[in-house]
């Protein structure tokens, strides 16, 4: 039979593992969604700043690079933009010779988009109108550092969770041992019962063990009562047989009884069927001898008592 403590440990381990993984993944997902909403607000502000940087030039609308965020000037900095007019397009220098995938719908793109240098980009697209012209501004931010941070947090959480799980299992093991200690005391008391050192178990037991202890004590009391009645019955039987046995012993020691037994033995030896293998024949011969001598034995017994 499997150990109760092992079954409790396995069940607790499975429950804590499942609950811990669900809570950890749910927490990371909620944190990730919160960060994405936060970065979406930043990207929207970047798009509006780019919209302000679009000024009127000698050849029409142009981009004032003096108003740009310096991160847009460094190659592969993780901050990118694309501005589209009907005929013109501006790209950030940070893209270098890479292309930024322009989403089809405005707003924050669901999921991450592949970017240069194996970056994962959070992309926002906004539709604006400047100086009577429609513009499409796409801004992106590298989300890879956040993903790496999440990975580190996951590993750290996994280690901390494993350590906490081991600690909980250890505490649970100690608690179960302490909780089952009354059972060990009951076992010792039963051993004392077997050795005759006590007559019943202690009634002071935990609430969960009280029915068991009471049932065992009831069984012991019932067994003791049965043995007491058996001893009384045997005593009465012995007392009742004492006088007849004494009479029989006295009769057996008389010469008349010895002659009767010898006569009975000689008759059995002289019978032709006394040595037969058939049990039926031996029983019938014994019945004949018993009927013949019963009256004589009875007469002698009555005479001896008188």
UniProtKB/TrEMBL annotation:
It is an enzyme of class 2 (transferase). Its EC number is 2.7.13.3. SUPFAM superfamilies: Homodimeric domain of signal transducing histidine kinase. InterPro entries: HAMP_dom, HisK_dim/P_sf, TCS_sensor_his_kinase. Keywords: Kinase, Membrane, Phosphoprotein, Transferase, Transmembrane, Transmembrane helix, Two-component regulatory system. One of its GO terms (molecular function) is phosphorelay sensor kinase activity. GO terms for cellular component: plasma membrane. It catalyses: ATP + protein L-histidine = ADP + protein N-phospho-L-histidine. Residues 177-228 form the HAMP domain. The chain crosses the membrane at residues 153-171. The keyword Glycosyltransferase does not apply. Gene3D superfamilies: 1.10.287.130. PANTHER family: SENSOR HISTIDINE KINASE TRCS, SENSOR HISTIDINE KINASE YKOH. This is histidine kinase. The lineage of its organism: Bacteria, Pseudomonadati, Pseudomonadota, Gammaproteobacteria, Pseudomonadales.
